[in-house]
Amino acid sequence: MVSIIVGTNRADSKSSALAKIYRDGLLSRNVESQILELKDLPSDFIFSECFGNRTSEYQELLDQYIVSAEKFVFILPEYHGGFPGIAKSFLDSFSGELIKGKYAALVGLSAGRAGNLRGLDAYAGVLGYLQVEVLANRPKLSQIEDLLNGSDLKDEEYIARLNRQMDQLVSI
Amino acid sequence: MVSIIVGTNRADSKSSALAKIYRDGLLSRNVESQILELKDLPSDFIFSECFGNRTSEYQELLDQYIVSAEKFVFILPEYHGGFPGIAKSFLDSFSGELIKGKYAALVGLSAGRAGNLRGLDAYAGVLGYLQVEVLANRPKLSQIEDLLNGSDLKDEEYIARLNRQMDQLVSI
Amino acid sequence: MVSIIVGTNRADSKSSALAKIYRDGLLSRNVESQILELKDLPSDFIFSECFGNRTSEYQELLDQYIVSAEKFVFILPEYHGGFPGIAKSFLDSFSGELIKGKYAALVGLSAGRAGNLRGLDAYAGVLGYLQVEVLANRPKLSQIEDLLNGSDLKDEEYIARLNRQMDQLVSI
Amino acid sequence: MVSIIVGTNRADSKSSALAKIYRDGLLSRNVESQILELKDLPSDFIFSECFGNRTSEYQELLDQYIVSAEKFVFILPEYHGGFPGIAKSFLDSFSGELIKGKYAALVGLSAGRAGNLRGLDAYAGVLGYLQVEVLANRPKLSQIEDLLNGSDLKDEEYIARLNRQMDQLVSI
Predict the structure, then answer these.
(1) Which of A105, C19, C33, D84 could make a disulfide contact with C2, Cβ separation 3.0–4.6 Å?
(2) Between these two residues, D98 and D157, which has the higher pLDDT value?
(3) What's the whole-model pTM score?
(4) Where are the domains of chain C?
């Protein structure tokens, strides 16, 4: 199972739209996936689900989206020149043992030019620390406001990059 | 005014103990400072204080600790090989205009060897994006469990590094 | 004295053209500067000037461009997604004591979109290790082939960013 | 074929000693490897083998160590808080097409505590840009002077980490 993590809690985000495009792309490759929107986490999870605290509901969520998955896609918009804090807080909320040795694909989005390059590098560093293998191919979608309109991703180069990443993710 | 930000919401943290040492060190240099513990933020601030939402209580907190301060100390423990997500979520919760052009000193803490080097680099990248000048001198306190016992920091080399950083922070 | 370091040994580089623009900009602020082109280093300096080897000519070069300068501008083009190796080898060729406590401004150039963001971050990390204060404002000039034609930098936004950086560099 | 790259041109380096340990470890897994010492590159290769220049001898070296290899081990000592410039210059000296899609394992060495963590992160970023898959497991050998005496690596934990990395490298 592939879990696609929308790395922001913003409502109606471009990242969310991209996650659906990604899910469709995987489905066209006969691979099922499930989307976890961080906006659906308990609003106080940083406090209620850390440092040894654990509700059964949150454990079920982790079981479904982390423990049961072998591969992950993290969609990470750029906030203040890096990944959203909540995307790291989500990783902080569980033991690295749950994700160790698994695979991840990263996609960056930004309003500006760099496509969240710095955020992807830093997030990959953390995932690497957790012994997650992160694909080298990391599409960085810049100027996303022009690029992504509803479910329509316009740029052919970006579409090709995402397709190559999907091909690789399903083949490992 | 200097704001010392404890970059975790863990209770009774080593970072909190270090913040108090830092405050005392600044006081001995005749500089007043105030400590903000991220554990004292509203437990749902990632949801309630982002994307245009703002309570008056939170605005007052930002006025006190960000707007009124010219210099910042961020105490950042290492979580999963990087900074705590909450420390970035705190930055995400306000406009970069509030902190632009100000100064920051970073201190890293870790149970392991690297003293949160990767977390400090990534956090400095974000602060730099926000046009905050980050001091080059960034003490990285490794094996903190042995090092910091209550309010007693044992290692002479670390104490000297912190003192140099404090000297520099007060002089700019 | 300000030393402007052209961080590549490519002949007739865009970085070299930008260094001259930078020198003119400093001069218009009544600040003199000197340009060091890494292409003018001895072609075997990585071998002949490292690990305790030192010719008197190279020592004179270091005296002029590093020891005598208080501020530095590093112009760093993007090679393979990072800074040119030679730009780090140059730092490797002398003791950190020679540059400790001084100031640096970084400018990135790239053919692609990111303006050498990753290279600037990594280089700033190294300079920070050497206790060099690196300005937060780091212009990243992307798609430089379109941007810089001879001595003519076209983009108003980039010109404004460089001007802000120059203002800051001369004022510290 | 696995190429083990000693990422420094220092003579009799600890990195060189570790490369031999690595080669023996691979051999005990029935995998042959070849060691490339960057100290054996032409002393002026940054000038003579870049920007379109290419001697037949250097092309043969690239054919042997890069083109003919599918997997790479980069042994990277820490110089001034990052990787040696020469290790990046070596990558700069050839087209990314020669190494694209291949695999790399990184090992860091340092006199200090961090085991070249920052250098490994930055080098992994560059390799990722070149579409090289870099193993998440990156042993960081700190305080190497105490650790590595001749061909004898003392620390059991480090030996175990290197063994896990070797196991993974041969299995992909």
Answers:
(1) C33
(2) D98
(3) 0.97
(4) 2-171
